[in-house]
User: Fold this.
Amino acid sequence: MEKTRVAIVGMGTVGTGVARLLLDHGDRLARHAGRILWLEKATVRDLKKNRGIQLPKGILTDDLDSILKNPDIEVVAHLVGGIEPARTIMLQLLDAGKDVVTANKALLAEHGEELFDRARALGRTIAFEASVGGGIPIIANISQCFSANQIRSVRGILNGTSNYIITSMEESGVDYAKALKHAQELGYAEADPTMDVDGSDAAQKLAILAHLAFGIRVKWREIHRRGLEAFQLDDLNYASELGYRIKLIATAQLHESTNQLELHVSPTLIRRGRPLAEVRGAYNAIMVDGDAVGDMFFHGKGAGQMPTASAVVADMIDTAAGRTDITFRRLELWSDRDSKIDLMPYEQSKGRYYMRFHVADEPGVLSQITGILGKHAISIASIIQHEPNNVFHADDKRHAVPLVIMTHQSSESAAMAANLEICKLSSVSNQAVYLRVSEGDKA
Assistant:
């Protein structure tokens, strides 16, 4: 059987998993590829670091040129995180005539246009299944299996760290700080978890999915995002009382009447029992709605060594077998082909809202708040107001009571303006919360 010589750049957690699959399951991979995937080289920065795997002699090196200048190496797993030197290394690999497989969603979200243009000009390919959803095969499904459909929406939990934290808060009754610390101790969260918990990581992945599904090119920083800072443990409890769970949801919703795409990452109340509401722990899940096939649900481990390595090696197999080349040419990803879809300004998006305020326990407060909502054409679906709980208003010694309002549909601009105006009332604490609410079965 013929060999395709492959290499790995970056032997971190995922790179080690890729090497393990290539070395331990070569026969299985060869059956799928129709050829042997022969691991020729693996480059690292520190040769002395223990990686938990014994590689055959001569494979491990700290010399990138041993890959770049070896014409026999055809496919390279590019497993370097961040933007630089990851971008420079990928360009070097393409210039050296290598087809590339990557898991770096930040790099694609930031420099996809440049990298894919270079690959096309050189007759090379870039495969990136592992960049979104870990082991979930969402890239292949959207780019290939949904090709007979007009995709109408893509919605999902795209960050396992944030979902693990939310699940811990909900199940254990601990606050955000304790749930984050536990996630860090288990290795689910980085020492600096900002990109995971503020919605940035999910926005990067959403930018990639939106491009695949709708052809729109959007910089991930242009996607409106709110993270776990937008709510507290109390809100998880109130949501449960109302029959909902809160999840950090990445949304791409096509509005065909205006030919606009709504994009955002938002903490969202989802009715219990709906598929996304039941995703627990460090799992990812994605719902895709196509006009012919309807709703499809994908669920699995969104990170971790072997799930991500599984996606990387699957791309290496497709690249070696020539399948990546076919889809790469057909899709024209990040090309200068214009999309007919525009990005909807976030403030124009519409939905239902959950609002929570701490208000002074005195007559007339509720009428003030409902008056402001009415002024902004926001109608109320339900109200929860509990008995005083010995919490005092921030500015004086009046008892404060939590007031939770569920609205009917309104625009984001109206909800934002009403929330700001309500917070200016002397009877209302300025630490208010307002979150989106998923409507109907779209969850």
In short: The chain has a mean pLDDT of 93. The chain has three domains: 3-131, 138-301, 349-437. The longest helix spans residues 105-122.
